[in-house]
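Hi support team,

I'm opening this ticket because the web form for multi-chain structure prediction keeps timing out on my end. I have pasted the exact lines I submitted so you can reproduce it. The total is 861 residues across two entries, so I didn't expect it to be a heavy job. Is there a limit I'm missing, or should I split the entries? Thanks in advance, R.K.
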Amino acid sequence: MKDNELKFSLPMLDAPRTARVRFRKVGNLQYISHLDLQRTFSRVLVRAGLPLWYTKGFNPHIKMVFGMPLPVGAESECEYLDIRIEREMSDEEIKDRLNAELTHELAVAEVYPAERHFCEIAFAEYEYTVHTAGADEALTARVREALSTRPLTAIKRSKSGEKEVDLLDFVHRFTVEATDGALIIRAVLAAGEGNYLNPDLLITALREKTGILSGDPMQESYRILRRRALLADGITEFR
Amino acid sequence: MNEKISQVLRSVQKPGRYCGGEYGATIKDKSAVKARFAFCFPDTYEIGMSNLGMRILYGVLNREDDIWCERVFAPWVDMQEKMREHSIPLWAHESGDPLTDFDIVGFTLQYEMCYTTVLQMLRMANIPLRADARGESDPIVIGGGPCAYNAEPLADFFDCFSIGEGEDNLVEVTKLQIRMKEEGRYTRAAFLHEAAATIRGIYVPSLYEVTYNADGTIAAITPKYDDIPARVEKCIMHDLDKSFFPEQVVMPYIEAVHDRIMLEVYRGCIRGCRFCQSGMIYRPVREKSPEVLNKQARCLYDATGYEEISLTSLSISDYTQLEPLTRALLEWTDRNMVSLSLPSLRVDSFSKELMDRIASVRTSSLTFAPEAGTQRLRDVINKNVEEADLMRAVRTAFAGGKTNVKLYFMQGLPTETAEDLEGIATLASRVVHEYYQTPERPKGRSPQVTISVSCFIPKPFTPFQWEAQDTMEMLEEKQAYLGSKVTDRKVRYTHHDAKVSRIEAVLARGNRRLGAALELAANEGFCFDAWDEFFDYEKWISVLERTGLDPAFFANRAFGLDEVLPWDVIDCGVTKEFLKRERARAYEGNTTPNCREKCSGCGANRLGGVRAVCPTGCGGAK
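Hello R.K., no limit was hit. The queue was backed up. Here is the completed structure from your submission:
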């Protein structure tokens, strides 16, 4: 039986510290919204018995800052959460305690001292696995061409309303190949604050332009996996 | 979850309702278990995940190595459409397997208006609707929960019902099925007969013959075999300190209606309000000890990380150990930033001290339930609350900084007069007046008193089970009358839909003949009738008419005191003699002391019970 009181016996730090948590959100959990994920983590952090720092106001609460948004229906290996700790506990122990309270679909990969601000994330690398009819060389070429020929238009929705954009403005680089009857698209897309592309829009645009995924929805499927968060150079991994 | 369902989730609202994968869910190897139990909640995921009974029974069943219990919820209408479009049958949350793969499919029946959703779920699962149409390979369909006390309207669709507290008998039923299958002597008929004959609290409707008089009332309910009970006695857990307690909770990702720790403090209620079914069917009152509760609360906190603990029971301030319990809890909850809430406060026990201690009262609003507008009528219903109590409670609340008070009332109660209705408006105005008489009230703010008025529905196993419900015209007229009496601008008046209340009364006091109407309703696509946006009164009246049933016969008729009632086949502990006595006292305007003051001889204490609040008979706390 775990004991949530243990945290009170740990030595206090001179000042609260930030621990960065990198976790995955895959499988069934791609359908959990950001708001629900926040609520989930607020409880996971508590039951993991972490020595959390609480705000000192009238209504004390813990501090959680999440990295870039992930749309419902996309999976990720690189979700980030910053938490504040006020007593001594190693990153490794934080990781183990969190993983004891999570399922494998939301497992923590790494806990470490933050090196950069979330606002320095500029790109993210995605892997699309598209199970669609006739995923062969010809289709690969069609998709490749669509991703190289301006404009690849789509309607982008934001707080300020809808507007038509050229998705290629958001595509940094890509590769397309066909393996085992599936189309694999790897793409580095804009993922910065104020310059962010919902990765699902690429599927929508490609469906319209190349006809992928327009057969029987019970026979065809796709998966979007965010693999890495990258800095402005499009190469260096965010830490 | 299978790929088919997963892809569909891209195109429905709130996919988090369906995706599963929750922390704390029980996953077993289906080839290594002997029985699979699908526990169905006939409403949405958010509502079902708030249900404490489901949490307990899920844990009880999964504690058995050879049983795997999974959860099933009613898919919302957009999902139902996708399922039809892609031929996806109703699936269980953990494995994603269709319900036809299961050995037992159980439904918890929490409110009458869920019946059509139950039937829709059976249809979505491709399980034959009628019990007599099911084959040997179909699952056994069992029902439980408060509505199982009169499940006669559902008798055609269920193989059996579990009456009372199901912790023991659901496991026994499942184990019996395993045993009979292993011994090679399982047939549906043999199994149901043996379950009815050997397991307490199991009611198999098909084994009882119901005959009717010419006027449509019941002539007799007769068991078809000698070895099954003429009346099925409900099950209770004798010692709540020792009964199963789920230490592992399935944590929903999306927000459940009650997204907090629910600590069940005791079962039953000492009060005996004469309209209240819960106050009767959960007797005898059995408490948990504060030590056990504190330990369980701690355990739930460690297992969930919830920031709020709600002490649940029918009337929390009647718990004899409330002081030691809250003291023990506060020793660690404050330090961990966990708040306490008490959802069921009575006005006569509401004190400043209690208010200071409890989080729910840190909000600006408080709720009390005087139920009736005059002392005379409150005595008739045995509410045992006086106006002075209410005034004291609201004064305390106002002095403590509250400005909003919500008051629950019921209209259409037996013996109700215009004066009683007017009394509701008057009482609300007096509460407003009390605000301005309270010197410590919040300065510069005005009070808001909301009166929420529901319609009286006669329920089985209450002293008012024989009463006629007001006709809909009367209910609506009374609603308008009360509305005209609410002139105070600080008072807001809301009321329930009389139409829903009428259909609820029909189902609550219905007999087996209603099965035909429910079947027609299911075939015409009725679902989610507990949701205002789907309830259609005209359609209900139409299905009743087309099946030759008169709603007034069930809802608006005074049942004869000597009439055989559809639910006479069930023994809920409380005797019919007691209910008749209470009814007579109601008409005399006499109140009955609560169980702690004086035993009123309801009969439930013969069922036993440890730490039972009953001064005679069961040797419980004095």
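A quick check on our side: Chain A has a mean pLDDT of 92. Let us know if the file doesn't open in your viewer.
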